[in-house]
Amino acid sequence: MEPIADPGLEVRTYFVREKNALLARADFGEMFADLVLHEVDGGISHPPAFEMLLRDGLAALTLHCASRPTAEVWAWTIHTQDPLANVFVTGDNTLGTITGTVFCEDVKDTGRNLLFAQSPGFDRNSTIEFSGSNILTAVETFYTRSEQRPARFSIMAPKILSCSPPNRIVTWTGLRGSMTHKSKTSTKRSPSRFWKPATTGSFAGAPRRE
């Protein structure tokens, strides 16, 4: 395969056998810089709290899509009470795209924090209520209640998603220890996916494989 020019954001996924857990990791610094440039070009300005909601939504869905089969398409709408906002993010593994936006005006107050998840074509629809207004907590709750397996997100650089079997919690510290002292057969790395910024009405990116 010919080298990819300017591949953009790389997402790496690993399966840690001795922990029976999946790990996805990426550094979103460049993606968020592109997001800022996109917003400046479009004359878009969000208060910091709303901007963080959008960034966490884009990062969480990117890691989620990178850990899923290539035939899947996902759309999340996340409604938060404080601040009152709707975050919409969608990722298409068949086309290799991700896009998102945040609505902070004329948002209907539902009285609850809710995450609506859809995977068109696979007849998968979930509505999850969660506590607080942290997007990563919302997605962790979605994994526990809908995906039936715990997940943990880390906001360190790079951002981390770890998925464990049901009824078992595997921390990033435990995974890092396994990977640091791994044997040749303990960890399987899947092909990387790349997320390249694009210019559309909303912020978008495109994942590619090595």
Provide a compact summary of the structure.
The chain has 210 residues and is α+β, with helices and mostly antiparallel strands. The chain contains 4 helices and 12 strands, in the order ββααβββββαββαβββ.
Word description of this protein:
With 210 residues, the chain is of the alpha+beta class. The chain has helices at 29-41, 48-66, 135-147, 172-180; strands spanning 9-16, 21-26, 73-81, 84-92, 97-103, 114-119, 124-129, 151-154, 159-163, 187-189, 193-199, 203-209. Strands 1, 2, 3, 4, 5, 6, 7, 8, 9, 10, 11 and 12 form a twelve-stranded antiparallel sheet that branches. Strand 3 and strand 4 (84-92) form a beta hairpin. The protein is globular and about 45 Å long. The N and C termini lie close together (8 Å).
Helix content: 25-40%
Distance between the termini: 8 Å
Low-confidence segments, given as residue ranges, are 1-6, 174-210
Give the CA-based shape: globular
Main sheet attributes: strand count, strand direction, barrel closure: 12 strands, antiparallel
Write down the overall mean pLDDT.
75
Order of helices and strands: EEHHEEEEEHEEHEEE
Count of DSSP strands: 12
Tell me the Rg in angstroms: 17 Å
Strand residues, percent: 35-45%
Q: Which structural class do you get from the secondary structure elements? A: alpha+beta
Count of DSSP H/I helices: 4
Short key terms for the protein model shown above:
12-stranded antiparallel beta sheet, disordered C terminus, 4 helices, disordered N terminus, 37% strand, alpha+beta, single chain, 210 residues, globular
